[in-house]
Specification:
The chain is 73% helix and 2% strand. It is built from 17 helices and 2 strands. It starts with a helix and ends with a helix.
């Protein structure tokens, strides 16, 4: 049940949206029911599974304070000053509490009980369901691709690309045994990468590439070699597919980097690249006018969030609140790199780490603090897993040895090789 809770909290809507499109293309009732189900199953898991006995408060207090301050600013904007912008109170607080606060609180307490075999099986089912859902909507995707980017009414191109690229990263780092299982893995990654390129999701492409590069630079030799080998095989498979069907995945992938405008489905706002830059500048000016405690959660140009995590933090909670965000990110990167360097890291630890890196890059270009559910859930789970490791004496000593072996430290390699020898 815990594996189901984490998988649905991260990607439940992305997987179910194509099916919701078929049965309820214009309504929102099914999506609300799904969000409610995720909350219920997370709370149920908290009641059933044993809680983490280690001191999580030492690591999770910064993100807790930041989100509380942000929620207070939202309340002040909506209900005290009655400000109007491109978001409604119900949706905003439903995402913030139902999609972030409750899942993060519940999962952080029990994430150490998650079995990686169960999680991979659940994720595999979600990946298959995601692909089936997109296939059932193939005609609609092809139709929208003729006039704009391929998308669904219930799922915009960025969301499709984000889910597909995240699933591809999970399959890339997963260890598989057996010819047919490995073959399915390669086929799945190839299809998911092709989907990301087809929907022309610029943000997920950049985020996935940068996360993969960081993983290759920081991880140990065995992880690095396997990642490179699999990448080469996937590239070869995509080349064959492109040649056979006369497709140009490269053109799909880079086309968005040279377009002059964007259209964000669901928001009803067309945003040019120049307009985004202007919004960044005005958001920065808004921060300079209210440096210490912030003022509004939206920028004054489009009356929308500035599509950048740090800018939104600065304009909403100022320097005081942003300090807590920076402390939380410090813990995230610390544990992320420690898991990459350790050869005893589980699939869950590796996946949450690389997912956090990908989402951290993505939130610099898209989304709001209250809507980036995957970023907050992955970062909180990452810190909780790291705190659990630090709570164990063996895990704490291993983390310290891995930290000593980080790039740029002279005593790194020999000490790392010796300390990680399997007994």
């Amino acid at each position: 049940m815990l594996a189901v809770a984490l998988a649905l909290a991260l990607f439940g809507y992305s997987v179910s949206a194509p099916f919701i499109q078929l049965v309820d293309p214009t309504g929102s009732r099914a999506a609300i029911v799904l969000r409610g189900f995720v909350v219920v199953i997370c709370v149920a898991c908290l009641l059933v599974y044993p809680r983490n006995k280690h001191n999580l408060h030492s690591y999770l207090w910064p993100v807790s304070i930041f989100l509380i301050l942000y929620a207070a600013r939202l309340y002040e904007n909506f209900y005290v000053r009655n400000l109007e912008w491109q978001a409604d109170p119900f949706t905003t607080f439903a995402f913030l509490f139902g999609g972030i606060f409750i899942p993060c609180f519940c999962l952080s307490k029990i994430i150490q009980n998650l079995d990686e075999g169960d999680y991979f099986n659940v994720k595999f089912i979600l990946i298959v369901a995601f692909l089936i859902g997109l296939y059932l909507n193939l005609d609609y995707l092809l139709l929208t691709s003729k006039y704009s980017r391929a998308s669904l009414e219930k799922l915009n191109p960025i969301s499709i690309g984000a889910a597909a690229s995240s699933f591809a990263l999970l399959l890339l780092i997963a260890r598989t045994k057996g010819f047919w299982v490995t073959l399915c893995k390669f086929a799945g990654v190839s299809i998911l990468v092709g989907i990301t390129a087809f929907v022309e999701a610029r943000g997920p492409v950049v985020a996935s590439v940068l996360a993969s590069i960081i993983f290759l630079l920081v991880s140990k030799g065995a992880y690095r070699a396997r990642f490179i080998y699999i990448g080469i095989i996937i590239g070869f498979i995509l080349t064959l597919i492109a040649y056979y069907y006369e497709l140009d995945f490269v053109e799909f992938a880079i086309r968005r980097f040279f377009t002059e405008s964007e259209y964000y489905r669901g928001s009803g706002i067309g945003v040019s690249v120049d307009g985004r830059i202007i919004a960044y500048k005005l958001s920065w000016q808004q921060f300079l006018d209210n440096t210490i405690i912030g003022d509004k959660v939206f920028e004054p140009y489009l009356l929308q969030y500035p599509h950048n995590l740090f800018l939104e933090s600065l304009i909403s909670v100022g320097l005081l609140g942003s300090v807590f965000l920076l402390v939380h990110l410090y813990f995230c990167f610390r544990f992320c790199f420690m898991f990459f360097r350790s050869n005893r890291s589980t699939l869950i630890e590796l996946f949450v780490s690389i997912l956090f890196l990908k989402e951290f890059v993505a939130v610099q270009f898209s989304g709001a603090v209250w809507s980036n559910l995957v970023f907050w859930i992955s970062s909180v789970c990452l810190v909780a897993l790291g705190a659990s490791r630090m709570g164990n004496r063996s895990g704490r000593s291993e983390f310290r040895r891995a930290e000593d072996a980080m790039p740029g430290q002279e005593s790194g390699r020999s000490g790392l090789v010796h300390s990680f020898e399997r007994r």
